Amino acid sequence: MPAWADPARAAALALLLVGAAGAGQAQTSDLVSKSAFRVCADPAADPMSMQDGSGYENKLAELFAEMLERPVSYTWFPMATGFIRQTLKAGKCDVVMGYAQGHELVLNTNHYMTSAYVLVVPEDGPLAGVTELSDPALPGLKLGVIAGSPPATHMARNGLIGKARPYALVVDRRVESPASDMLNDLAAGEIDAAVLWGPIGGPLVKRDHPGLKVTPLIKEPGAPKLFYRITMGVRQGEKVWQRQLNSLIRRNQPEIDALLTEAGVPLLDDMGARALDVGQ
Hints:
single chain, 3 domains, ten-stranded mixed sheet, alpha/beta
């Protein structure tokens, strides 16, 4: 007879499972290092995380490590299928610095930034005043977009997909950079505008393309949403570690905002409705 068909056996099994889960959670909490701020990161996710330490997530990690009075250490692995399994879940590191809120693979901290997809155009060109994908100036033009990303749906709704130039969504960032390629094509006049995730596009524009303008797409109606809250990710069950990071985020939000703004990340209010005015 299967356990679920015998109430007594089912009750005993349930008690065993509860005990095992509790023990597992306690063991998982013990995995967090007390001697280093151990970060799981992509070695070539420019401009976010870089093995040479130049990404803004690297600087964010340094900020948190300083607050915790621990050195930063990294476990490097490409941000692709298996990233969480091979790094965070394997106990090799304790935190992912940037993770979308609500993802089931990790336990999210409170969000430390809200950002959105952006439209990038030449600063002195005829599209400089465009703020939404329904603008009548856009049909017939060639827009770059990451294939399969949320803005593609809005572009299709507004008749912009037919002439769009798609760029790959999933690549090995150690050898390819679709966002950089898109911005280079825009600067060269091969496309008329670029649509990118703001925390990637904004910093790349600020660093490499000062002649381009970045406008957050905060006026697009309907689904899918184009703004997202970004958290840190820790292992499921590590509530003490999550609360410790939450406390640091809450108490140091102005410094976090300043770091991200300096990097060129467009920051929005929690509802993605307006840009934050963060002093630099």
